[in-house]
Amino acid sequence: MTQPRVLSIAGTDPTGGAGVQADLKSIAAAGGFGMAAVTALVAQNTHGVRSVHTPPHEFLREQLAAVFDDVTVDAVKIGMLGDVDTIAVVCDTLAARPAGHVVLDPVMVASSGDRLLDQDAEAGVRELVRLVDVITPNLRELAVLCGTDMAGDLDEAIAQAAGLAADAGTTVIVKGGHLTGSAADNAVVHPDGTVHHVPTARIDTANTHGTGCSLSAALATRMAAGESAAEALEWSTRWLHESIRHADDLDVGGGHGPVDHFHRTRRLAAAADTTPWRHLTGTLPDVPAPAPHLAPAGPHTQAMWEATGEVWNEIMDLTFIRELRDGTLRHRDFAFYLDQDAQYLNRYSRALALLSANATDQEGQIGWSEGAVGVLAGEAQLHRDWLGTNGVTVTAPSPVTLAYTNFLVASCAVEPYAVGAASVLPCYWLYAEIGFELTGDNHPEHPYHAWLQTYSGEEFIEGARGAIARTERALAAASPAERDQAMAAYLNACVYEREFFAQADRTW
């Protein structure tokens, strides 16, 4: 499909956080080609608006004509319009030159509650609402459009939106960002009364400048790409949540700063980086590791854990782990993870069986063999039960899963025993440490209670202790060259564990 061509019609923000500047970033981040027609030149920054200059309305008409005369417009996002004459120009243009999808962010009321339009302009926006496909008002604007007080919770806002959607024949996006509490959920409300709820956690930050502009622009782009309003809101909400989470790192302005529109883009680019892992080039990580809950069994496993600090911090900072901890992890992300983990465990058990055959002592033979059986009979069964109960079909291994398991099988099949033992150890040790870290947030009502309970349970912990002890004995009997090789294999597996957890957040 052609990259969606999306036109923003809005005012400016010279500091780049809102208006057409934010729209163009959002369109690009959502996979579109952005264009812009400027309705107003706004002198503003992260502290507020200083002045507004409205160019001649005929010039706006010429801007719009220049775009439509030359480019097929797949979607239009409308933001700040300012006055009734500007609204008239936009309405005339869209009536004469229809676009595929039109999303209106009705800039009518500031977050402070101040009205931004005179009565005539407000009346013009009300008429425009009936002409567009989707509107994305904040809660104050929704109340103004409904002629009522601002909603006190999401359910009340959805009820207001349902009435407006039915009356105007327009889909309404309800945004929960101005509510209080731990949730900042959004919702799609269709004219026929159907509602699609999109949960998202609130982020404690003052840097949310331009979030309304950004959400509506991303929404228009995803709809132009063929997604339904519900699908587009799912994607846009998730993308904006990530952008807000990393807003504080931007350090732009001294007031209410902008969001990081391109954090997802950089994250995915980093995931595709083909630079060799540092520890394979002779440089071991030097980030201090936290004290483990499971103690090393000797100097060799102690050295391994001490080299784990960098990747451990990266794992614990993953969106997947953070949302798993607090229970906000999306159902489909957990389903993807369990599907891949079922694929992984099937081949991991084979690696353990090969390792058992190569073990140089009877205790190792028995321990790794019991581990191979336990993986299939315990962990894998937990996954199959959850997947079956939730109607999820097991698919096939992802590229990450396949690379990781091929590495493990090869290490256990053809490398020295100590190298194979080191390669399988992170799956035991890191999972146990994660289980310890997350168990404090577990409770019977936690959506992933069973998973958290399994990896913090005594049976799994004892299995991890045994794996640490067997690996220490293998390393003690190995040559210095084999120990170096084992350290590299251990760190390879640690990085693969990070990638395994991270991959669920790369599916959108």
Write structural notes for this entry.
This protein has helices at 19-29, 57-70, 84-96, 119-129, 139-146, 154-168, 211-224, 229-245, 263-271, 299-306, 309-316, 319-326, 331-358, 362-389, 399-414, 417-438, 449-456, 458-476, 480-502; strands spanning 5-10, 33-38, 41-45, 48-53, 75-78, 101-104, 134-135, 171-175, 186-189, 195-198. It is an alpha/beta fold and 508 residues long. It folds into two domains: 5-132 and 207-268, Ribokinase (UDP-N-acetylmuramoyl-L-alanine:D-glutamate ligase, 3-Layer(aba) Sandwich); 275-506, Heme oxygenase-like (Heme Oxygenase, Chain A, Up-down Bundle), CATH 1.20.910. The protein has an eight-stranded mixed β-sheet, with helices on both faces. Helix 5 packs across helix 6 and helix 16 (417-438) crosses helix 19. The longest helix has 28 residues, at 331-358. The mean pLDDT is 94.
Secondary structure elements and pairings:
Elements: E1 5-10, H1 19-29, E2 33-38, E3 41-45, E4 48-53, H2 57-70, E5 75-78, H3 84-96, E6 101-104, H4 119-129, E7 134-135, H5 139-146, H6 154-168, E8 171-175, E9 186-189, E10 195-198, H7 211-224, H8 229-245, H9 263-271, H10 299-306, H11 309-316, H12 319-326, H13 331-358, H14 362-389, H15 399-414, H16 417-438, H17 449-456, H18 458-476, H19 480-502
Parallel strand pairs: 1-2, 1-5, 5-6, 6-7, 7-8
Antiparallel strand pairs: 3-4, 8-9, 9-10
Helix pairs in contact: 1-7, 2-3, 3-4, 5-6, 7-8, 11-19, 13-14, 13-15, 13-16, 14-18, 15-16, 15-19, 16-17, 16-18, 16-19
